[in-house]
Structure formats: structure tokens, C-alpha cells
Amino acid sequence: MNVGERVKCTNDSKFPGIDYSMFPNWIKKGSIYTIRSVEDTEGEELRILLEEVNNPEIYFPMIIGDAEPGFSHKRFSKYEEEVISDELMLELEKNFKKYLEIKLNETEKDD
């Protein structure tokens, strides 16, 4: 995962017994976000900060300093935007024009 990459939230669950007041702004499953920062943590997880979600800095004893709480990279998957092919777009335009013609004819008949 890299800065600027778009990701989709796949896990917005909260663990019981944890005080989430340090996260006044939370992620939502299914939402698309842009990575603002990626940092290694002690262990196998990456700490992700998002452009669309900002939280106040808090004191972390393990780093002996303040930092914005981040989210585990495991809560996200890479987001691939669906691209409509030129062929499909032409077909959609053709069908939409037919639809408009039908609606126009119906309107003229009603007059």
C-alpha cells in the first residue's frame, strides 16, 4: 500500500473493551479512501492514515510522543475503479437515445 493509492474499507469493526474516544472519526466498511501516510509498526501491520479521515493526535507511550491514531492496513483492500469500455459506452449511448425517442413519442401522443 502506497501514499495516494485508493483503498476500500473491508473491516470497520471495533474490538470490545477498547476506548475508541481517540478515534472520533471512524472508517466505514465499503467506503473508498485515499492513503495519506503509510508507516511500519512493530509487528506485521502497517499504520495507515487516510486523506478523508483525520483524528487528533494522542500520546503513545511506545513512541514516547504524540501521533495521530491510524488504522491497520488489514482493514483495507486495494480499490480498482471499474472502467467502461468504449464499446459498452457506445451501446449505452445508443440505448439511451432510443429511450429518449420513445419518451418523446409518448409525450407527443399525450398532447
Description:
- The strands form two sheets. Strands 6-3-2-1-7 form a five-stranded antiparallel beta sheet, with no helix packed on it. A two-stranded antiparallel ribbon has the order 4-5.
- It folds into two domains: 6-80, no CATH class; 84-111.
- It has one helix at residues 86-110, and strands spanning 6-9, 32-40, 46-50, 58-60, 65-67, 71-72, 76-78.
- Helix content is 23%, strand content 26%.
- The mean pLDDT is 88.
- A hairpin with a 5-residue loop joins strand 2 and strand 3.
- It is built from one helix and seven strands; from the N terminus they run βββββββα.
- It is an alpha+beta fold.
What is the CA-atom radius of gyration, in angstroms?
23 Å
pLDDT < 50 stretches: none
Shape: elongated
Strand content: 25-35%
> In percent, how helical is the residue content?
10-25%
Tally of individual helices: 1
Mind summarizing the main beta sheet?
Answer: 5 strands, antiparallel
**Helix-and-strand structural type:** alpha+beta
N- and C-termini, Cα separation: 59 Å
Strand order of the largest sheet: 6-3-2-1-7
What is the residue-mean pLDDT, rounded to a whole number? 88
Number of discrete domains? 2
- Which oligomeric state applies? single chain
Sketch the topology as an H/E string, one letter per element: EEEEEEEH
Task: State the total count of DSSP E strands.
Answer: 7
